[in-house]
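Can anyone check this?
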Amino acid sequence: MERIGVTGHRDIPAEAQAHIEAAIRTALRGHTGSLRALSSLAAGADQLFACLALDRGAELTVVIPSGDYEDGFGDPEELAGYRRLKDRATREVRMAFPHSTDEAYYAAGTYIADHCDRLLAVWDGRPARGLGGTGDIVRYARERGKPVTVIWCEGVERA
């Protein structure tokens, strides 16, 4: 079974959404046989990837950074999306952090990088805005020789 993990931005600009979705679909279609998708199900890239992977028939492993992770979803629709996807997961991994901190996010991201065969990064190429951000996880994966596929829409900037 091939394992693909995701790291990515929570806020995907509207003008990049269709391009990023198509690129994730293409990356997932490039695999034959069974597939396991690893995601923390954060809003944005993580949830989009998980939805598309499940549509393709992948098994989903959810990596939960902390005990109070759900409290970080400010938008009720994003929380509902998280819960729907979590309910469809075949496996759940919980980091041993009681509270959502940068360290908890970093631990979840590095777990995903360590346990996948390839990492998809919905990433604008800029440094992380805090420990555990997309740039940190991409750097971590690359330092360990993990194949990383960067997905972004040229010319689009995040807010």
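Reply from J.R.: I decoded it. The mean pLDDT is 94.
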